[in-house]
Amino acid sequence: MIGRWMRGALVAIGLLAVPASGVAQDDLDGAPASMSLQVTTDPSTIECRRLETVNPASLVFRPLRRTFHDDFDEHPLANGRWVPHYAGGAAWPEARYWGGDGSDFKRKTSANGEQQIYVDPRYAGRATAPLGLDPFKVEDGVLSIVASRTPPELKFVLFNNEYVSGILTTQGTFAQKHGYFEIRAKVPVGHSVWPAFWMLADDGGWPPEVDVLEGRGERPGDLVMTTHWRIPSTGRIQSCGFDFAVGDASQAFHNYGVLWEEDRLVYFIDRRPVSDIKVPIGFDDPMYMIVNLAIGSKFFVGVSSVDAESPPTVAFQIDRISVYQIDTEQARR
User: Fold this and answer.
1) Which tens digit of pLDDT belongs to each residue from 192-202?
2) What is the mean pLDDT of residues 244-265?
3) Is the CB of residue 267 less than 8 Å from the CB of residue 240?
């Protein structure tokens, strides 16, 4: 998702239609304090593959215990779990996150060609006082990150961005090495619409990057899951990911997750493994989570620049976000 990467070799071999999960729907709705996931165990020398057919003999259940959970029964900025902007280094003064010239640097990824600015009620843009703009709406335990066209009278104040939208990150509040990271969400569609749930290293370096879910807004039901890393000898960015077809992704809640083990990353849709990859070099530090709704892109296929077809407003609906750690003691029993 982040704009600094220029993909080396991105493997995206068509669309795989994801069959209905064998897990009961009631199980998928919740995030219990402990659970098990069925994961692949065949040789981790397999670099990157789509799991279209899996040998049952290679599957085992991995016990997990929950370490983070937000089911969005209250505003996401009320509990201290989330921050509404990209974080920076120690040299970035706290006040700069909330307004003034240059404050938009932490509120969009310009290199991607994004045309939104991420706001929150405290953000002032170029103004001298907070604008009170809130892209986060909570109703019946569902968070909506809402992107809407920038009011004309605020265009200059908001650095001439076409849209206002929202981002939530856990940098500085929660990060974890290894484990299962999951979002339950409806993935919005529309011209220029780019929702994502992804992870970056807590030390601030890039890559690694794990894109658990990205929606191609102009291709309804087309979702992509991707891993990015750097080749030390050349400095080249390498990527591998696959597109998956989830036909009702914009109308129904589904679970999208990644299990990060010592030797592999396994991607899941509705807790069924759909792809895996040997953990690349550089995945050494804990990772934090990001969920956002971007508008517009230069490079991401299925997301174009803003034009008259772009919706006046669009919402990314999120039922919950949960994280689990691998229960090594339970696994040894």
Assistant:
1) 999 999 999 99
2) 97
3) no
